[in-house]
Amino acid sequence: MPDVKDIFAKMVEGKGSDLFIKLGAVPHFRSAGSVKEIDFPVITQEMINELYTMIADERVKKIFDHEGAADTAYELQGIGRFRTNIYRQKGSIAFCFRHVQSNIPQLESLHLPTETIKKLAELRRGMVLVTGTTGSGKSTTLAAMLNYVNLNFPKHIVTVEDPIEFLFYDKKSIVEQRELGVDTYSFSNALKHVVRENPDTIMIGEMRDVETVESAMKAAETGHLVLSTLHTLNCTQTVERIINFFPPHQHEFLCQQMSILLQGVCSMRLVKSKDGMSRVPAIEIMTNTPTIQELLFTRKTRDLYKSIKEGKYFGCQTFNQSLRSLIEQDLVSVEEALASSDNPDELKLELRGISKGSKTGDFKFDI
User: Fold this and answer.
1) Are the CB atoms for 182 and 60 separated by under 8 Å?
2) Nearest Cα residue to 157 out of 169, 258, 82
3) First and final C-alpha spacing in the chain
4) 4, 102, 117, 304, 344 from 321: Cα distances, Å
5) Rounded to an integer, what distance in angstroms lies between the CA atom of residue 100 and that of residue 166?
6) Higher pLDDT pick, 245 / 102
7) d(C-alpha 71, C-alpha 66), whole Å
8) Which domains occur in the chain, in start order?
9) How far apart are CA 144 and CA 141, in angstroms?
10) Nearest Cα to Cα of residue 227 among 280, 274, 265, 260
């Protein structure tokens, strides 16, 4: 029987981000946004059983037997570390693996607005959220922010993750990483106790339920910086999602809390690079400007976009402004930017201004 470990090696060699394995099909991996076949035989039941035995310990098996799906982490010596989801499809076990880079990237290497992201990471209190769809770069960005703090400030950092992805080692900061199912049984339970551990910065892997959101806001209220993620498409939707976690009678008070606590939202999506060999992040950023603070306080969420667009001085930018910058840097094509935009008509108008402007007279494209 072929060695199933070879699948991981081939995926890493192909610069894959995700690996998909199911019964009766050859393995596939995602690279630069596209799904491709791996040169490997069709997966048999014997291979599925071997993978399951390799990856799932007794704790994971219990969760999988009870829920039909389980998350864990798997490390293969000499090849890499993988965030793993085990699930069932058509009655058989299947796997999705996310390759976690062993080296935590520097913020400067991610094509992000570095100074704004650094300022958010340096905050002493409040809440900063990194949002986006699955595979949009949320975990990598959060890891880079924590790494920046770890390298530059004498702080106490505590993470609560499901599972632990990037491994941190103490530099200027002391870093403690807690994993669901191993060190604690839920995000909300961990957060109830973490404030007694005297942290400066708390990272929550995901705000997935109302209990976690409540606990995160309480931690931010008591003078900690809380970093976390949400699966939302943009900054405005992020605010609405948090509000809608709670019943209507709590919305007014919640908005007043958010106007003080929510210091920043970074919404991300990955766009195929111009050469087609990789993907680069487009990012919408909302910081707690005086205008945005007032809009949050009065729940005028429909007006947030305009304030983000006009808040460049405070480090804000819309997705379209980010995409325009990527085009100016010749990192993405106009076609790819328009396909990734929430408002392509607005982006077209902005690009017409670029093509006629003196600064970027070299730009030649049809829109």
Assistant:
1) no
2) 169
3) 54
4) 44, 32, 16, 15, 12
5) 7
6) 245
7) 13
8) 5-100 (3.30.450.90), 107-356 (3.40.50.300)
9) 5
10) 265
The label of the residue with tokens 């106790």 reads 193
Mean pLDDT of 87-96: 96
> Which pLDDT band holds residue 364 (cuts at 50, 70, 90)?
low
Distance separating alpha carbons of residues 340 and 282, to the nearest angstrom: 9
Contact indicator for 228, 216 with CB cutoff of 8 Å: yes
CA–CA distance from 282 to each of 260, 325, 364 (Å)?
Answer: 27, 9, 22
Q: 66: buried, middle or exposed (CB in 10 Å: 19+, 13-18, 0-12)?
A: exposed
Q: What is the dihedral of CA 187, 192, 197, 201, to 10 degrees?
A: 60
Question: How does pLDDT run across 197-231, given as a tens digit for each residue?
Answer: 999 999 999 998 899 999 999 999 999 999 999 99
Round to whole Å and give the CA distance between 267 and 269: 7
Please say if the pLDDT value at position 15 is more than 50.
yes
Question: Contact 116/287 with Cβ under 8 angstroms?
Answer: yes
| 241 membership: H or E segment, kind and range | helix 235-244
What pTM was computed for the model?
A: 0.86
Nearest to 147 by CA among 191, 102, 183: 102
Q: Can you tell me the distance from the alpha carbon of 217 to that of 222, in angstroms, rounded to the nearest whole number?
A: 9
Per the CB < 8 A criterion, the answer to whether 26 and 40 are in contact is yes
- Alpha-carbon gap, residue 152 to 155, rounded angstroms: 9
Mean pLDDT value across residues 328-337: 94
* pLDDT tens for each residue of 57-75: 998 999 999 999 999 999 9
Beta strands, E only, the chain: 18-21, 28-31, 34-37, 69-76, 80-89, 92-100, 126-132, 156-161, 174-179, 201-204, 225-230, 262-272, 279-287
Question: Exposed (0-12), middle (13-18) or buried (19+): which is 153, by Cβ within 10 Å?
Answer: middle
Six-digit token pair at 282? 């487009």
> What token pair was written down for 196?
């007694």
Dig out the tokens for 159 from the structure: 């993470």
Give the integer Cα–Cα distance in Å for 291 and 307: 7
Residue type, 19: L
With a CB cutoff of 8 Å and minimum separation 6, the contacts of 300 are: none
8 A C-beta contact, residue 319 and residue 282 = yes
Distance CA 38, CA 29 (A): 7
Q: Which residue has the tokens 């669901």?
A: 180
